User: What shape does this take?
Amino acid sequence: MISYTFFRATIFMLLSSDLCFGAGIIPVDLLRGTAGQSVTFETSLEPTPEPFLALTWSFNITTSIITSTSVDVVGPGYDGRISLDNSTGSLVLRNLTEEDSGEYELIVIPYGAEPIHGHATLEVLNEVSIPNMACPTENLIEGKSSVNLTCNADGVVLDRIWKKNGKPLHPGDTVVFYDGGRVLSISPVDRRDSGVFLCKVSNSISFDTAKCKLKVFYGPDEPIIDQDPIGAELEESVILRCSADSLPKAKFSWKFKRTVMYGPEHYIEEMEKRHLGKYTCTAHNEITGLEASAVHTLRDAGTLISMSVVVCTLLTSLGLMAI
Assistant: This one.
């Protein structure tokens, strides 16, 4: 029985005697397998009428998988895990683990011919798990808060892609990736950062995703006051409307002289002179704690028109305005 050590020593002596190996006999250089499954190292050898004088499979050069002469000698850790086709040298390796990743070499000594060999690399991967990405539980305030999203997954992660609202996310002024893309950091957050963030992890055999929906609270922005109708006159009804961009929606209050009113609208059923003057609308955001105000002056359009007529008449009489 030829031992693995003696077999390799014999091959080394043959090589030292200027006998060269024949063409590679494993056509696929890189094989990938899934942990727990099987992989087959196929060879390009045709079955021969007579068995080979000897052949051996080895792992990372130093570890014997099987040496086959008149009998088969299986290396430690491979008993029950391999099947060898003695006529072609093809090898099946079962119950793969990540520790099986590495270099595999086959050396064959046919009868009446020089040794031939082949080699291949095996990459064994575990399927990636569903990533674990915890969403922040505290309120995110525009311009004040920061957020770190961490995308963790079991298994060998070869690629990690971040998206926001379905579009690839790239680093920018406030967006930074750390730890090989595992951590997404946004500091400070902006209202435009609201949306669904997705992290996709993958390797050559599997992929999975995790999602996190961020809501950034902001505002209120400076209020906008609209008057309806714009040209309201005395004894007519008029509505003042106040709006401001805010999340959540702002709450509004009005201040006129010493009177305070609440709500986004202030309705005057019949405008009188006592209603004329400056109205201040204040928008308040209960989460951000911010306030913003705007001022609107309510005037009597009828008086303005009358004053315009008087001015025009006066200018005409003075010859300062063309008729």
